């Protein structure tokens, strides 16, 4: 199921619903729902929207829109989970230039990077930085929701 | 975990955490951090069982290599 979710996100820009996944996997709808929860428990860096069975985040991509818009082959239909994961999206599109556009949270001016097969090809402005505001793991002090 | 136009832009962000002064990565460091071996297998059918479990150790190794060994980065409780 993990692979189908990731592949679905890559192919369509949105996460599949568990009922769609269940049909594709030859499972009952309820078994599909339970398997989705098991997959999310095994992949805790993603999450379902609270109190639902909808995939909200499945890094490096996101089901809910974020400020990190991803464009491939001239199509902007993906969102990265966060600015850090945005640099990992390149690995989902081998051989393609992956462009990430985001507004700077300070001034709203654009931040843009382009990567291909893991290589940084372009950044505007050249001094773009990544910033971790709350630390990883137990030192974090905040829930994983970004 | 955000991208900013520069460190100064991050520090001016209204939600900037003053305790996160050590929380900067250059873009090449970030691309390296999120470009380690396991990341290259996210589309593999066995990613969740074969590759994802290796990520934590891989992250620690990369952070150590670039000198980010404080609890803030390593995910360990503050002393």
Produce a short descriptive summary.
Chain A has 146 residues and is an alpha+beta fold.
Largest sheet of chain A: 5 strands, antiparallel
Shape of chain B: elongated
Listing every helix as H and every strand as E from the N terminus to the C terminus, the arrangement of chain B reads EHEHHHH
How many individual domains of chain A? Answer: 2
Largest sheet of chain B: none
Question: Mean pLDDT of chain A, as a whole number?
Answer: 93
Q: Count up the helices of chain A.
A: 4
Helix content bin of chain B? 40-55%
Determine the structural class of chain A based on helices, strands and strand pairing. Answer: alpha+beta
Low-confidence stretches of chain B: none
Identify the overall geometry of chain A: globular
Order of helices and strands of chain A: HHHEEEEEHEEEE
Strand arrangement across the biggest beta sheet of chain A: 5-4-6-7-8
N-end to C-end Cα span of chain A? 25 Å
Low-confidence stretches of chain A: 141-146
Q: Count of DSSP helices of chain B?
A: 5
Structure description:
The complex is a heterodimer of chains A (146) and B (79). By secondary structure, chain A is α+β, with helices and mostly antiparallel strands. Chain A is built from 4 helices and 9 strands, in the order H-H-H-E-E-E-E-E-H-E-E-E-E. The two termini of chain A are 25 Å apart. Helix content of chain B is 42%, strand content 8%. Chain B has helices spanning 7-12, 27-33, 47-51, 55-65, 71-74, and strands spanning 2-4, 24-26. The model of chain B has no long low-confidence stretch (mean pLDDT 92). Chains A and B meet through helix 1, helix 4, strand 7, strand 8 and strand 9 of A and strand 1, helix 1, strand 2, helix 2 and helix 5 of B. Strand 9 of chain A pairs antiparallel with strand 1 of chain B.
């Amino acid at each position: 199921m993990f692979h189908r979710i990731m592949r679905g996100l890559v192919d369509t820009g949105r996460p599949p619903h568990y009922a769609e996944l269940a049909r594709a996997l030859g499972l009952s709808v309820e078994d599909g729902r339970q398997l989705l929860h098991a997959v999310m428990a095994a992949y805790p860096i993603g999450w379902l929207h609270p109190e639902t069975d909808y995939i909200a985040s499945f890094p490096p991509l996101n089901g809910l829109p974020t400020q990190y818009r991803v464009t491939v082959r001239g199509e902007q239909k993906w969102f990265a989970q966060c600015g850090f994961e945005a640099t990992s999206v390149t690995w989902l599109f081998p051989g393609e230039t992956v462009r990430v556009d985001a507004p700077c949270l300070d001034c709203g001016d654009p931040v843009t990077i382009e990567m291909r097969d893991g290589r940084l090809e372009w950044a505007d402005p050249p001094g773009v930085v990544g910033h971790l505001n709350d630390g990883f793991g137990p030192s974090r002090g905040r829930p994983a929701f970004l | 975990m955000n991208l900013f136009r520069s460190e100064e832009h991050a520090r001016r962000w209204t939600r900037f955490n003053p305790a996160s002064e050590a929380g900067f990565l250059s873009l090449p460091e970030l691309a390296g951090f999120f470009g380690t071996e396991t990341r290259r297998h996210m589309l593999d059918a066995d990613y969740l069982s074969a590759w994802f479990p290796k990520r934590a150790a891989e992250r620690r190794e990369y952070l150590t290599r670039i000198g980010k060994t404080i609890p803030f980065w390593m995910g360990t409780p503050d002393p």
